[in-house]
């Protein structure tokens, strides 16, 4: 009776795993669930632009209640977005419109109806040490794949909205 | 030393030899043993093969270098585009801040998508200066449709994607998957 050495057995196991990798990859991504924080703001160039009421939207994402919108965290987030844009984009005012928290598992699509009626969708494709790979679609505007580390906001200025423009911050957190 | 202990020691030596961790004398000694032991030599070949398989798998998973294709695409666009941007002011461009003109070139990746309607989505080049998220940056692929888009990805703690031109005509909804 022959006896395989542990090295040989280990090597075979590893080779088997390597050989199985492409098949596993074809089965689709296995990721998440992760939190994706979507904050919608509006920038305007005229400081006298009227404030607009926020609205709740259907979909997988759940808007926060009005009291929380006024909370410190929102202020902090909006200020952070403003700080990243200020000096790079010319605008007078940034105001908070709405916030959505998505919890996305692998391949799951989160949908938000933007105030201008267009859909914003994010799909989690993969998560690894480099970040979360998200397919992002701003309806009628731009589509992209982004791989963002946790806490790294992707700020999208894409949509005209009333007398200003919507700015959408997408921030994976995991 | 029992047979099992000897085998464990051989395996350890084999691994260290394979990884180049043996000193000169130990290496020579082990090479002499390898020459006398077909079994050890087979195991060494298996280890070498395993490493090559792993290397090939890594190479296959590496992100492609997209820049050469993008550069060629941009040159094509520049060559075919008339000096018409002044005739068609883009409303969103009014929001571009002064930083764009202040030596931000090193930190700025500009994807000019005007005229890309027929050429399809434009992949982005790697962000200069080391972008967050790896050599390809945060934005891995982008399809701005008929719009122009700026991507600011300068290794800071945010990535900014700015669509410069509002959609003139509506089109179908987005996609669920890429």
Secondary structure topology:
The complex is a heterodimer of chains A (174) and B (178).
Chain A (H helix, E strand, L loop, with lengths): L5 H21 L7 E11 L17 E2 L2 H4 L2 H14 L7 E12 L4 E5 L5 E10 L2 E8 L3 E7 L5 E8 L2 E10 L1
Antiparallel strand pairs in A: 1-3, 1-9, 2-3, 4-5, 5-6, 6-7, 8-9
Chain B lengths: L2 H16 L5 H13 L1 H24 L5 H14 L27 E4 L27 E5 L5 E4 L6 E5 L15
Antiparallel strand pairs in B: 1-3, 3-4
Helix pairs in contact in B: 1-3, 2-3
Percent range of helical residues of chain A: 10-25%
Q: What's the tally of helices of chain B?
A: 4
Rounded to the nearest angstrom, the distance between the terminal CA atoms of chain B is: 59 Å
* Strand segment count of chain B: 4
Total number of distinct structural domains of chain B: 2
Name the average pLDDT of chain B: 63
Strand line-up in the sheet with most strands of chain A: 2-3-1-9-8
Strand content bin of chain B: 5-15%
- The coarse silhouette of chain B is rod-shaped
Shape of chain A: globular
Strand order of the largest sheet of chain B: 1-3-4
User: H/E series of chain B, N to C?
Assistant: HHHHEEEE
The greatest interface between two protein chains, and residues involved on each side, is: A-B, 53 and 58 residues
Low-confidence stretches of chain B: 82-91, 98-136, 166-178
Q: What oligomeric arrangement do these chains adopt? A: heterodimer
Number of strands of chain A: 9
The radius of gyration computed from the alpha-carbon positions of chain B, rounded to a whole number of angstroms, is: 28 Å
Overall SS class of chain A:
alpha+beta
Keywords:
heterodimer, A: 174 residues, alpha+beta, four-stranded antiparallel β-sheet, 3 helices, B: 178 residues, rod-shaped, disordered C terminus
Give a written overview of the molecule.
The complex is a heterodimer of chains A (174) and B (178). Chain A is of the alpha+beta class and 174 residues long. Chain A has one domain. In chain A, 22% of the residues lie in helices and 42% in strands. About 13% of the residues of chain A have low confidence. By secondary structure, chain B is an alpha+beta fold. Chain B folds into two domains: 59 residues, no CATH class; 97 residues, no CATH class. In chain B, 38% of the residues lie in helices and 10% in strands. In chain B, a hairpin with a 6-residue loop joins strand 3 and strand 4. The N and C termini of chain B lie far apart (59 Å). Chains A and B meet through helix 1, strand 5, strand 6, strand 7 and strand 8 of A and helix 1, helix 3, strand 2 and strand 4 of B.
């Amino acid at each position: 009776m022959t006896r395989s050495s542990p090295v040989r057995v280990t090597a075979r196991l590893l080779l088997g795993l390597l050989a199985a990798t492409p098949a596993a990859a074809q089965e689709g991504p296995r990721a998440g669930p992760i939190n994706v924080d979507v904050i919608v703001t509006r920038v305007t160039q005229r400081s006298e632009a009227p404030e607009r009421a926020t609205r709740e939207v259907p979909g997988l994402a759940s808007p926060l209640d009005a009291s929380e919108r006024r909370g410190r965290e929102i202020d902090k987030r909006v200020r952070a977005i403003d700080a990243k844009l200020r000096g790079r984009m010319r605008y007078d005012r940034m105001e908070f419109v709405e916030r959505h928290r998505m919890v996305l598992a692998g391949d799951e699509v989160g949908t938000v109806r933007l105030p201008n009626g267009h859909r914003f969708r994010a799909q989690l494709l993969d998560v690894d040490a480099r970040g979360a790979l998200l397919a992002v679609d701003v309806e009628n505007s731009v589509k992209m794949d982004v791989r963002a580390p946790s806490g790294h906001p992707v700020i999208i200025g894409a949509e005209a909205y009333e007398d200003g423009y919507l700015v959408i911050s997408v921030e994976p957190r995991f | 030393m029992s047979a099992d202990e000897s085998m464990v020691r051989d395996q350890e030596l084999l691994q260290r030899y394979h990884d180049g961790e043996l000193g000169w004398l130990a290496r020579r000694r082990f090479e002499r043993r390898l020459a006398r032991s077909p079994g050890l030599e087979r195991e060494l070949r298996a280890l070498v093969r395993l490493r090559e398989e792993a290397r090939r798998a890594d190479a296959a998973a590496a992100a492609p270098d997209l820049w050469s294709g993008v550069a060629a695409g941009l040159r094509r666009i520049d060559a075919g585009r008339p000096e018409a941007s002044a005739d068609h002011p883009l409303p969103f461009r009014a929001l571009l801040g002064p930083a764009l003109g202040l030596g931000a070139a090193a930190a700025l990746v500009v994807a000019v998508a005007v005229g890309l309607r027929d050429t399809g989505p434009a992949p982005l080049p790697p962000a200069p200066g080391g972008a967050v998220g790896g050599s390809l940056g945060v934005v891995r692929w982008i399809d701005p449709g008929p719009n122009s888009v700026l991507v600011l990805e300068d290794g800071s703690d945010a990535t900014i994607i700015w669509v410069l031109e509002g959609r003139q005509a509506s089109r179908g909804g987005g996609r669920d998957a890429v």
